[in-house]
Amino acid sequence: MTPHPTSADDDRATHTPERPAAVLRSLPGRARPRKEALQEYEQESARLGEGLPAGLGALLVPEAEQLYRWRIQLDCGCIHEVWTRGEEDLPSERRRHGPEQEQLQKGQMLCVHDDGPPARYQNIVEWGERTEHTFPADPVEPRHGLSPQEWAAMRHDKPHTRAFWKVTLACGHITDTIAPSLEWKPADGPRLTDADRVAEMTEEFEEFWASNPTGQSPREREHTRRVLAQGWPRPEPEELCYTCRWVRWIMAYQRIGWLIPRAKQPQRQQPPSRATLERRLRQMEAEAKQLRTQLAQLDSHTEDRPQT
Ligand SMILES: [Zn+2]
Ligand SMILES: [Zn+2]
């Protein structure tokens, strides 16, 4: 079987996006009041430290005194406030976490929008943790707009258990995928479908797409084509990445200041100016001159005094 050539509709991200250079500049609008930021810190640190022994909680939650506030602008245009550990710790140099605690790239952040781009398929590159989930029996009434016959053919009339695996995708994000059976393990590799059946399915799909051009979105059509070309493997070698939809780059940042303002440093003494030094030198020279005159006068009086 020859792999289906990639087409314009194959929108799988095939390369790591280039990291733009973030710049320090002033951003539109104003920072929120510090009191609000402090309230958020208190709520967040209480949430993070919840159920932890005080010592461990203190390790995980940075002290308010260590936190420096920034306003940042993302490539979607949104402006948010972020905190880093100190004024030298630039927000664009930090690695943040995705929804599954996976590390995002340096300078990336999540920003959830209603108008986000659609999710894209990404190849599965690593298999992680396995969990099982039991579903109740399906209702008798047809669902998902299916006819009673179609529904009857696929309906589960008893509770059923499925195995889910956490998988890392080529983009670095983590999602869940369904295993083909409870017994299946990643070491087993994907189960391929009988070649004759795949040929039949390919023909059926091609007919469906020809007669019903809008029956499947271009993304799903291309995904189906790729999976058919690979012999309809189960589990599928790719999954939709929803995290990619929300990952944005920090384009610009602006300083706000410490979450807890620092006590003012005592002003360093400025070195005296040349004019001040010259004035003081003149004064001292005048004083020295006066002292020498006084000394000379004293000496002359002593000499004048008759010897005893
Ligand atoms: Zn945004
Ligand atoms: Zn992704």
Keywords:
single chain, 308 residues, alpha+beta, five-stranded mixed sheet, four-stranded antiparallel sheet, 7 helices, elongated, binds zinc ion
Write the layout of secondary structure elements.
Elements: E1 23-24, H1 34-48, H2 54-60, E2 68-74, E3 79-84, E4 108-110, E5 120-135, H3 148-154, E6 160-169, E7 174-178, H4 195-211, H5 218-229, E8 238-241, H6 243-246, E9 247-258, H7 274-304
Parallel strand pairs: 1-9
Antiparallel strand pairs: 2-3, 2-9, 4-9, 5-6, 5-8, 6-7
Helix pairs in contact: 4-5
The structure holds zinc ion (2 copies).
Walkthrough of the structure:
With 308 residues, the protein is an alpha+beta fold. The longest helix is centred in the C-terminal third of the chain and has 31 residues. Among the domains are: 119 residues, no CATH class; 74 residues, no CATH class. The N terminus is likely disordered. It starts with 22 loop residues before the first strand and ends with a helix. The radius of gyration is 37 Å and the shape is elongated. The protein has 7 helices and 9 strands. α4 runs antiparallel to α5. It binds zinc ion (2 copies). One zinc ion binds next to α6.
Short description:
The protein is an alpha+beta fold. Helix content is 30%, strand content 21%.
